[in-house]
Design goal:
The protein has a single domain (5-352), classed as Chorismate synthase AroC (Chorismate synthase, AroC fold), CATH 3.60.150. It is built from 7 helices and 18 strands. It has helices spanning 38-48, 114-121, 137-153, 188-204, 230-239, 260-263, 332-352; strands spanning 5-6, 11-16, 22-28, 65-69, 71-72, 81-82, 87-92, 157-165, 168-169, 210-217, 244-249, 267-268, 271-272, 280-281, 284-285, 290-296, 306-309, 315-318. Strand 2 (11-16) and strand 3 (22-28) form a beta hairpin. Helix 1 crosses helix 3 (137-153) and helix 3 packs across helix 7. The chain is globular, with a radius of gyration of 21 Å. 41% of the residues are buried.
Length: 359
Amino acid sequence: MAGNTFGKAFRVSTWGESHGTGIGAVIDGCPPGIVLDPELLQAEMDKRRPGQGGASSPRKEPDRLEILSGTFTPPGEDFPRSTGTPISLAIYNKDAHSKSYDNLREVFRPGHGDISYLAKYGIRDHRGGGRASARETAARVAAGAVAKQVLDQAGIDVLAYTVALGGVGIREKNLEMIGANRFFCPDADAAERMEERVREVRRQGDTVGGIVEIVADCPAGLGEPVFDKLEAELAHGLMSIGAVRGVEFGAGFKVADMLGSENNDEITPVGFASNNAGGILAGISNGNEIVIRVAVKPIPSISKKQQSVNLENETVTIQVGGRHDISAIPRIIPVCEAMVRLTLVDHLLRHMSIAFPME
């Protein structure tokens, strides 16, 4: 299967399936000497771990991250450092209930990739979607946690949070509130209304979507001016997440209704007067905060009856069993952060490879 590798200078290949032995990633291009604190890496994994209540699947996976190669703990130091060689990361599946999918062996689930996978490969793993499962994103978070250690040294910080869920949107943005609720929502009142909405939808046997905003403090100069524009590659990374169906930067689709005089970010001696560009001009970061929003679709696995067809193209009515999230939010939050980090670290290393120094 092609397309399992992301990045050019900092290259990440993920492997594994939802109901296989495990999942993981191989990182090639991580600079040597980066301290990889196991607790910090595991903290990122814990943010997307299933079985934490709310809108999350009841599947109980510890998601303990194991580093199999590419590190060495120097004498006298407490933590391993990257050696510059490929870093292999593994997360073993501990709570896969494959029998829950036996009734779907010959049926295509609406909203899933079952029918398109079979059309492409002539074979599909019906157990939770196999490679198409959201479980694959744990490997991205693991790689993104390593990228975070590199970005920390460059002073680049990435943060994601929920701004809408199931039609409930935020009315204020207090980033200090993000850690105070399960949805990583910066509005305490909205977080409570989101909880109510999730309970309501769960009783109905349905699911909801939402909007996640990602911000990054990034120096000017990252990106390329033509095909590898920074926003193009950020969009590539974010759109590669299965539940993401749209991406916008800065003012986003609102620019279609603006005049040029309204959309332009005027420049002052102390910086830009606004940030409609979302921190990127001509494909290159301009020093403003990078602002991205992604539209997250509802989880397609619902307990309501749906019409589909089987392998013989006969009409069938199905109810999808198993253990599923009510929404990809909040577990998609660390995945979005990971893809932005992987993109930024890749462009950081590409920028450092040219003669012109970044200040």
